[in-house]
Amino acid sequence: MPKIISPQVEFSGLLTQMKAVTPEVFAADGKFLNLMEGRWQEPGQPRPFTSPIDGTDLGSLPMLDRATALRAVEFAKKEAAGWAATDLDERKSRVQDCLNQLREHVELTAKLIMWEIGKTYKLGFTDIDRAIDGVQWYIDNIEGMLGSRKPLGLVSNIASWNYPMSVLLHAVLVQALAGNSVIAKTPTDGGFISLSLTFAIARRCGLPVTLVSGSGGELSDVLVKNEAVDCLSFVGGRYNGRNIADALSQEHKRYMLEMEGVNTYGIWNYSDWNGLADQLKKGYDYGKQRCTAYVRFVVERQLFPQFLETYWEAIRSLKVGNPTLVDNPDDKLPDLAFGPVINAMQAQELDRLYANALKTGATPIYEGKLDESLFLPGQDRSAYRAPRALVNLPRQSELYFKEPFGPIDSIVLVDRVEELVGEMNISNGALVAAVASDDQKWAARTAKEVRAFKVGINKLRSRGDRDEVFGGLGESWKGAFVGGALLVEAVTQGDKPVLGNYQDSTLLPEKI
Predict the structure, then answer these.
(1) Residue in 476, 460, 474, 446 with CA at minimum distance from that of residue 300
(2) N or C, which terminus of the chain has less Cβ within 10 Å?
(3) Parallel, antiparallel, or unpaired for β 254-258 and 181-185?
(4) How many C-alpha atoms does 480 have within 13 Å on its Cβ side?
(5) What whole-number distance in Å separates Cα of residue 487 and Cα of residue 492?
């Protein structure tokens, strides 16, 4: 018997639930609206949107033009002064009310995330759950972090699609808690439906939040450079980030720009292969579509046979398929390593990078195959790709200096410690890295030579939650660091320097 889409995640049912919970998000004809000027309005120029899971039509992005988005920005700015003057206890009460209501709809939010960006249910649930728990921590600790600091005004948010809740919604709610009004652009590759649900709840609770959709090219000047915007929080690619950094350096406004880099894992004088196998499998969460995914392994040459055996066994065990399918209506959703990449276009880009690597001389060492039993017969599978891995990636390969943002690993073999460090620093700065060795003292010393913000010793490092700071070195981050008290400091002003990676200096926290 072929599998079926689980009735508990069937999209039309989820959409019916959302219309019952937040009817204001929809126009009379069912189209999605933008949240601007304090209410849901403006369907814009609808752009059809399909799910990466199987090509299902999910509705239309309500794309705005520049003039309409400018209205949204100007109104959001007008809300800033009144909200800043609101007593902190009142702000805490409203954000707490928002979290309480969000908790009632965690299941719905997680299942919408599945269809929008192809996460498994477990990862979709984790995304919204981490956002709520993270903001709760800020509510409980905001007095000590805020002190006498004052809000900046209007904070603009442009974030990638991969973590709509634990990155974008989380940042927005903390920014509002600190006394700012907030505007956010929905990621055009996915997340606008679940974000509309959560922003509708936030607005009902009296939070000064605005949510707009539109192309980056059309809205960039309004959301980035406009004088009404006092601070920009950006998560995205290095090319766009560099352009924004150049533009904002002339504007003299606060910014936090998280960009990509090649996150590396260095292995030298090492023997805990079972431990590494667990890390390899964990590192494939969401098909490596994460800013902290480890995509380059720099391995001591004499360890390559053991590494290769460990890698093969670990990656072969990963299940890749449609995350909505079950055998029977009452079955639990499948336990998959990951589902599709974000869309067919990204899958094709991964194919292009892989082909370019082979053409320039890289050697393939693993090419996974999709399991037919984990899909519906005849379903659209254009966004699915199994893991692949390469060794001896030449410098002329495009992938050598680039994060693939998908399930492609590259392995570089080295003979000297100096080579290992040089290869780990190939992208001039990264968000995370790791060094594995039986010699812990050597590993700790070598980790200091790696240009990553966080370096794990025999373990993966991640973005972190609550009081854990986050940022990047080199070209992987520009502007103020975030996480813990630094996130509050980044969106407020006071009498001490804001730590960050700036054009003329890098101000690091004492402990990372």
Answers:
(1) 446
(2) N
(3) unpaired
(4) 24
(5) 9
Whether 161 and 190 have beta carbons less than 8 Å apart is answered as: yes
For residue 5, the surrounding DSSP H or E stretch is strand 4-5
Q: Quick one: CA dihedral 323, 328, 330, 335, positive or negative?
A: negative
CA gap 268, 69 in Å, rounded: 52
- SS3 call for 29: coil
d(CA 154, CA 366): 48
Secondary structure of 63-77 in HEC code, one letter for each residue: ECCHHHHHHHHHHHH
Q: What's the pLDDT score for residue 245? A: 78
* CA-to-CA dists, residue 302 to 306, 413, 415, 465, angstroms: 9, 9, 8, 37
pLDDT tens-digit series, residues 421-477: 999 999 999 999 999 999 999 999 999 999 999 999 999 999 888 889 999 999 999
Predicted local confidence at residue 147, as pLDDT: 94
Cα dihedral value 119, 122, 127, 131, nearest 10 = 170
457: left (phi over 0), alpha (psi -120 to 50) or beta: beta
DSSP letters along 37-89, please?
TTEEE---EEEEEE-TTT--EEEEEEE--HHHHHHHHHHHHHHHHHHHTS-HH
pLDDT in tens, 200-218: 999 999 999 999 999 988 9
Q: Full-prediction pTM beyond 0.70?
A: yes
d(CA 179, CA 176): 5
% of residues, the chain, pLDDT over 90: 92
Nearest residue to 323 (alpha-carbon basis) of 287, 270, 275: 287
In the block, tokens 């998560």 appear at: 235
How far from each other are the two terminal CA atoms of the chain, in whole angstroms?
Answer: 52
DSSP string of 277-335, one letter each residue: HHHHHHTTGGGG-STT---EEEEEGGGHHHHHHHHHHHHHT--BS-TTEESSTTSPPP-
